């Protein structure tokens, strides 16, 4: 093979640089290529401080991927990216537009419009205790890891509707991000800033979104806090089968455990369908291709549920009262509705008590945690 | 230098130690494969079968836990060789999953000593020790991360869910106000059922899978006259559409768990 003399190499490099600069002038966004010197980030120190997630044992186990250890710097970068509209095509929306801390990282809408104002098919999900979800993310479990998930909203046409090369170009040209990427991941050159690293940082931030300070937690695992009488009755209606036969709410079949979410998928009877093919949103079936999985969805955690109306994957219920009226009625027939969805007796008083119990799952220290707020 | 001598010395010791080791016993592996049938027909979810009393029945969920599966050696001391401590067996496959329904759920046990065994022991349910634990004690993928029942601090040992033509009008209604569904959830230590099947099993270098077959129809057998209005020897599912192993329904849970003894065949 012919050796390329080093002088010639420099020439090629210079030409490329020139071309890049010319290209940068046009409005067409392009990959900026090398912006200046190689190893242009060495002036910043890379001294990552590892971060230990703090949560009690009884809350479960978080598995941190070996290739994305948590660091203070990684989390900080992730938080910035999460709240920064730089991730969207027209700089109007960020992740937090649909996952807003004050609403426990939801947006209060049935389904959410993206940057083009087009409504998505599903309702934005709360990110509370998201690190404990291990049976697939999204309503239908379509994505396995937070790292993979974070790549998706940027390119989703009904969400941020951008391209990753564009976003990375903007981040590489930004006055702070190159330094933050170096501090988090030890890269030495802006060119090494990748969407994968951006996603890793966002995932690190999301893993810190942990809640265990609701009234429920304080009563069950703390001391000195007690339920009101209506809340106790509500708790018993939620967890226990007080009546014989099938006449009971049975919520904990699918919302059991300290996360109030069984790691599985169910059809909770909100959609009438004559056959497996008739569900407007195929849910889990879209992922597995198995017809009897159509119409199955992941029961979301009910933590902070009082803050995340409207409810269900399509946001069809505006209030918890409507949710309970649905369950009480036995829902709608379809071939694979869970057998645990059965009509049951529930007086108005009991309904209020169940809701009083659900409200004990509210953790305001979570939504007000300074570490979870917009840093800009 | 002092350390060097020490290391040298200990490695010598190590080598000598190895010489004394008994010769490794030959080992083999064995596949256990769980399948379900309905009176001999491959069991599939969302498929209609005929219940003992003639009505149509379909299932949408069938799963159970098994604990402490062990082979019992053929010699006088009947020593037990543990195969599986705990597993979750979900046999809910629909009619588009014919192959999976036929192969069922299988797992491979490795490093088993070759030899002759007189039988196999299987605990249906979660053994009392493990039943003190809860899903948060385990990491992703562990069998015990699911089907825990807060109200009773127990795992749900077996779940049989579906619907049947309860009003005998020829159709099964699933969901809604007129749903004809049933749910049998059996759990708590009281209903744990340890079964021993006597069967000559010879483990050699290559072994055919051990087939563990559950006849779901058999799980509904019942000799308690109170639970069987027409006296046909099976649970009256029209009257007793569920159990949650509580409030006087314990007998149903117990009956179902006990029935695993006769519902199981090992081939």
Question: Can you describe what's shown?
Answer:
The complex is a heterodimer of chains A (376) and B (267). Chain A is mostly helical. Helix content of chain A is 34%, strand content 0%. Chain A has helices at residues 6-25, 72-83, 95-98, 146-155, 164-173, 177-185, 195-207, 215-221, 229-239, 284-288, 320-329, 348-359, 364-367. Chain A is globular. The model of chain A is unreliable at 1-32 (pLDDT under 50). Chain B has helices spanning 2-20, 98-103, 250-263; strands at 27-38, 41-42, 49-50, 56-73, 80-90, 105-113, 115-124, 148-149, 154-164, 181-187, 193-203, 210-215, 242-243, 264-266. In chain B, the strands form 2 sheets. In chain B, strands 3, 4, 5, 7, 8, 9, 10, 11 and 13 form a 9-stranded mixed beta sheet that branches. In chain B, strands 1, 2, 6, 12 and 14 form a 5-stranded mixed beta sheet that branches. The chains are: A mainly alpha (376), B mainly beta (267). The A-B interface holds A 57-61, 63, 134, 239-246, 252, 256-258, 262-264, 267, 269, 272, 290-292, 329-343 and B 45-46, 60-61, 94, 96-97, 134-136, 138-140, 145-151, 161-163, 173-179, 181-183, 241-242, 244, 246-249.
């Amino acid at each position: 093979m012919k050796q390329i003399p080093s002088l010639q190499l420099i020439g090629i490099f210079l030409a490329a640089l020139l071309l890049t600069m010319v290209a940068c002038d046009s409005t067409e966004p392009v990959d900026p290529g090398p912006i200046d010197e190689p190893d242009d980030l060495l002036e910043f120190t890379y001294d990552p401080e590892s971060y230990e997630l703090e949560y009690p044992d009884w809350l479960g186990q978080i598995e941190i991927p070996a290739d994305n250890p948590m660091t203070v710097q990684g989390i900080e970068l992730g938080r910035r990216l999460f709240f920064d509209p730089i991730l969207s095509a027209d700089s109007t929306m960020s992740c937090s537009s649909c996952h807003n801390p004050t609403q426990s990282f939801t947006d209060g809408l049935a389904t959410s419009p993206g940057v083009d104002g087009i409504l998505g098919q599903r309702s934005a999900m709360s990110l509370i205790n998201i690190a404990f979800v291990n049976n697939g993310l999204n309503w239908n479990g379509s994505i396995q890891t937070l790292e993979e998930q974070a790549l998706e909203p940027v390119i989703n046409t009904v969400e941020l509707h951008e391209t990753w090369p564009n976003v990375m170009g903007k981040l590489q040209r930004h006055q702070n991000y190159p330094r933050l990427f170096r501090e988090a991941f030890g890269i030495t050159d802006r060119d090494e800033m990748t969407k994968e690293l951006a996603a890793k940082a966002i995932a690190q931030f999301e893993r810190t979104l942990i809640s265990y300070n609701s009234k429920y937690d304080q009563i069950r695992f703390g001391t000195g806090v007690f339920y009101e009488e209506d809340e106790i009755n509500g708790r018993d209606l939620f967890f226990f089968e007080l009546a014989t036969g099938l006449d009971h709410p049975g919520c904990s079949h699918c919302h059991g455990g300290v996360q109030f979410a069984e790691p599985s998928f169910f059809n909770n009877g909100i959609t009438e369908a004559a056959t497996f093919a008739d569900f407007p949103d195929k849910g889990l079936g879209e992922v597995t291709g198995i017809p009897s999985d159509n119409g199955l969805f992941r029961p979301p955690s009910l933590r902070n549920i009082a803050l995340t109306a409207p409810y269900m994957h399509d946001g069809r219920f505006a209030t918890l009262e409507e949710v309970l009226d649905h369950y009480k009625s036995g829902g709608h027939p379809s071939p694979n509705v869970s057998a645990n969805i059965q009509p049951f007796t529930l007086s108005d008083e009991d309904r209020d008590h169940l809701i009083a119990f659900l409200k004990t799952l509210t953790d305001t220290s979570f939504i007000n945690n300074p570490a979870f707020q917009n840093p800009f | 230098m002092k350390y060097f001598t020490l290391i040298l010395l200990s490695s010598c010791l190590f080598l000598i130690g190895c010489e004394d080791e008994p010769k490794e016993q030959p080992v083999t592996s064995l596949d256990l494969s769980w399948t379900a049938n309905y009176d001999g027909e491959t069991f599939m979810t969302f498929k209609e079968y005929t219940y003992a009393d003639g009505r149509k029945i379909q299932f949408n969920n069938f799963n159970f836990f098994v604990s402490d599966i062990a082979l019992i050696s053929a010699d006088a001391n009947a020593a037990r060789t543990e195969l599986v401590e705990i597993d979750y067996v979900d046999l809910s496959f629909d009619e588009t999953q014919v192959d999976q329904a036929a192969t069922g759920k299988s797992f491979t046990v490795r490093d088993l000593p070759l030899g002759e065994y007189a039988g196999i022991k299987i605990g249906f349910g979660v053994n009392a020790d493990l039943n003190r634990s809860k899903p948060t004690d385990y990491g992703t993928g562990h069998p015990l991360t699911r089907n825990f029942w807060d109200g009773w601090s127990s795992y749900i040992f077996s779940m049989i869910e579906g619907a049947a033509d309860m009003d005998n009008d020829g159709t099964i209604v699933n969901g809604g106000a007129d749903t004809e569904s049933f749910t049998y959830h059996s759990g708590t230590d009281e209903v744990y059922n340890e079964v021993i099947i006597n069967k000559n099993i010879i483990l050699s270098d290559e072994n055919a899978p051990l087939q563990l077959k559950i006849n779901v129809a058999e799980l509904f057998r019942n000799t308690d006259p109170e639970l069987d209005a027409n006296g046909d020897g099976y649970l009256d599912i029209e009257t007793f559409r569920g159990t949650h192993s509580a409030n006087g329904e314990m007998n149903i849970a117990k009956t179902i768990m006990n029935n695993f003894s006769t519902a199981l065949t090992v081939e």
